[in-house]
């Protein structure tokens, strides 16, 4: 999909039938960055200090600070009071205040995307497109035989695009599950026309057909959202407009 | 760390430098989560796994990726699995 990013409403409400996808520009003015840095927890501030380059530190502060601001609108809580907990593979969730809100985020270069739902497991991935000479080798190693066969029939340009489309979809599913790359072999897709359909999901109670899989493109790259509930309306918001 | 482990570590750092040339390797602790510390994404991590396979002849099944978060994890894994 080509998302139409709109200004969010003044009051953010999210129902169980809706998924909010946010796009955030992480290249922000120094004053704004200074403010966002005041929102971070001690652990986040320490992590920010470990980056060697200002660029990476600034992106991290912008991403974490904005995430806190964004979630605070849903949670009716101040940004600094929000506490995060982390799953076995590092998937963050809101630990405080108590909430059914779920979220997942991804960033690539100066863009962050964040998916938010009520109660549903959700994952999002974003990858900037990079020229990779051995794309077929990667596909052979990490994709299922039928997926590799489908990609190998394409011309070189389409192989790159299709590889990243499939990769972001798989990564979004793995992020929704919180299982990390160890679960990669248990996720399989097929193409139905130009749409990706999830056909196999190992060690999972929700049937593959129940999952929402939605790819999207940005000038910066390619992304995908995955959610265990497939009949949601997806609203796309631009942060800070 | 013995000589062999030191050599393994040097090779791993070289692989990571090719993948994330801007990252701060001097600050990377042996027990630190590599992806978080260096800011490398999942696609780069796959390339890192391929590099380990090609450099050490160790084939790492995907189900083991979750065990390989730190330099220490990976060095021990390579030492245990290479022939």
TrEMBL record, chain A:
One of its GO terms (molecular function) is magnesium ion binding. Keywords: Transferase. Gene3D superfamilies: 4'-phosphopantetheinyl transferase domain. Residues 31-116 form the 4'-phosphopantetheinyl transferase N-terminal domain. Residues 121-189 form the 4'-phosphopantetheinyl transferase domain. SUPFAM superfamilies: 4'-phosphopantetheinyl transferase. GO terms for biological process: lysine biosynthetic process via aminoadipic acid. InterPro entries: 4-PPantetheinyl_Trfase_dom, 4-PPantetheinyl_Trfase_dom_sf, AASDHPPT_N, P-Pant_transferase_sf. One of its GO terms (cellular component) is cytosol. It comes from the Bacteria. Belongs to the P-Pant transferase superfamily. Gsp/Sfp/HetI/AcpT family. This is 4'-phosphopantetheinyl transferase superfamily protein.
TrEMBL record, chain B:
InterPro entries: ACP, ACP-like_sf, PP-bd_ACP. One of its GO terms (molecular function) is acyl binding. Keywords: Fatty acid biosynthesis, Fatty acid metabolism, Lipid biosynthesis, Lipid metabolism, Phosphopantetheine, Phosphoprotein. The keyword Lipid metabolism applies. One of its GO terms (cellular component) is cytosol. SUPFAM superfamilies: ACP-like (SSF47336). The keyword Lipid metabolism applies. GO terms for biological process: lipid A biosynthetic process. It comes from the Bacteria. This is Acyl carrier protein. It comes from Oscillatoriales cyanobacterium SpSt-418.
């Amino acid at each position: 999909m080509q998302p139409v990013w709109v200004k969010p409403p003044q009051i953010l409400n999210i129902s169980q039938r809706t998924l909010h996808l946010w796009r955030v520009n992480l290249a922000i003015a120094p004053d704004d960055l200074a403010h966002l840095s005041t929102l971070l927890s001690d652990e986040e501030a320490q992590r920010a200090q470990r980056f060697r380059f200002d660029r990476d530190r600034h992106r991290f502060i912008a991403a974490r600070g904005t995430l806190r601001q964004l979630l605070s609108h849903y949670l009716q809580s101040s940004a600094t009071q929000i506490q995060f907990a982390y799953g076995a593979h590092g998937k963050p969730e809101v630990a405080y205040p108590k909430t059914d809100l779920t979220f997942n985020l991804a960033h690539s270069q100066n863009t962050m995307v964040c998916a938010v739902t009520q109660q549903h497991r959700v994952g999002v991935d974003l990858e900037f497109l990079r020229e990779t000479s051995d794309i077929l080798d990667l596909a052979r190693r990490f994709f299922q035989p039928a997926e590799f066969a489908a990609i190998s029939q394409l011309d070189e340009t389409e192989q790159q695009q299709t590889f990243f489309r499939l990769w972001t979809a798989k990564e979004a599913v793995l992020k929704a599950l919180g299982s990390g790359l160890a679960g990669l072999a248990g996720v399989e897709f097929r193409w139905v026309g130009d749409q990706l359909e999830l056909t196999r999901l190992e060690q999972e109670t929700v049937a593959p057909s129940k999952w929402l899989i939605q790819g999207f493109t940005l000038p910066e790259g390619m992304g995908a959202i995955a959610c265990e509930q497939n009949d949601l309306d997806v609203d796309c918001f631009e942060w800070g407009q | 760390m013995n000589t062999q482990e030191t050599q393994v570590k040097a090779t791993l750092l070289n692989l990571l430098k090719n993948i994330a040339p801007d990252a701060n390797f001097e600050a990377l602790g042996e027990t630190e989560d590599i992806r978080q510390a260096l800011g490398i994404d999942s696609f780069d991590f796959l390339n890192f796994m391929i590099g380990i396979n090609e450099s050490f002849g160790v084939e790492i099944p995907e189900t083991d990726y979750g065990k390989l978060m730190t330099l220490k994890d990976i060095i021990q894994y390579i030492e245990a699995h290479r022939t």
